[in-house]
Amino acid sequence: MGNDTEALPGGGNLKSLDRSRTFVALLCLIFGWIFNIIVLAWVHDRVPRNDGPLPDLFFSLFPEVPNSIRITEFIMLFMVINAVGIIYFHQHRWIVARRVFFCVAASYIFRAICICLLQVPVPSINTYCAPQQVSSFSVVSERVISTFWSAGIEALRPRVLCGDLIVSGHTICLFTALHTFKYYAPQKLRVLNTLYNIMAIIAIISILFARKHYSIDVFLGYVVSTTIFRIYHSLMYSYHQNEMDKNLLSQNIISIFIPYFEKDALPPYLFVNMFHIPSLIKDRGPTKLCGYKKEFNNLNI
Known about the structure:
The chain is mostly helical. It has one domain (19-266). It has 9 helices and 4 strands, in the order E-E-H-H-H-H-H-H-H-H-H-E-E. The protein has a two-stranded antiparallel ribbon. It has a two-stranded antiparallel sheet with strand order 3-4. Helix 4 packs antiparallel against helix 6 and helix 6 runs parallel beside helix 8 (215-240). It starts with a strand and ends in an 11-residue tail after the last strand. Residues 7-14 and 281-301 have low confidence and may be disordered. InterPro entries: Sphingomyelin_synth-like, Sphingomyelin_synth-like_dom. It is a multi-pass membrane protein. This is PAP2_C domain-containing protein. Keywords: Lipid metabolism, Membrane, Sphingolipid metabolism, Transferase, Transmembrane, Transmembrane helix. Belongs to the sphingomyelin synthase family.
């Protein structure tokens, strides 16, 4: 992959930007997603079928509304598309993309490990699960191929495999997209924060009404996605300040990847959240869409 030159907010160039690092982060994301599908295809045959749903406080208080999952998926798709737009139009899109891709990848890898470790009964007696078989290589491969393209969205393909419950994938997508907007959107768009927070709450409540996840799954989805996003950005800031050894989070496994992904990134005091239309013509500067003059290190999630 070619290198690019990262522009400073006031004009001029700082350092050569290695775009291949962003593609490595994208490969990590793809690996995390495929890992989840493989694990789901394998654990499907290990999900208890003779036991009813586990006790859940939300389920005991509210009735089941099966079609409410459509609300969740609509909001989730909206939030994800919004986050992709934030990344694409950001003037430092290659840096933002690698950070978000890695955070999503780490969240999904953690989710896959949790699914491997514990299988629980489905949350609703109305949930259809395909017949269980012996988990041979051919069976698992066929399931992976048949479910990969739907990206876990039931509106695209009805759910037939069961077992991916412990950490909600919908919640990971929702809150990673939400944090991406909060962290990287220009100041002029921050007025939408409250609206997006409300939408995220509606989405996770709809998941519970649909009985697609237990309450603990949704809670863990929020905790995992938020924690990983904040750990990465905390370590990123410490790295650029040459203070990694002073950050207790540097003992986290994520710290291993920070030097690679942040080596050619702008330091926080030069990182400005500003939108530009990517130029398709060489030597023609990008068109400014929406400026934001506040320094990155003053942002809050």
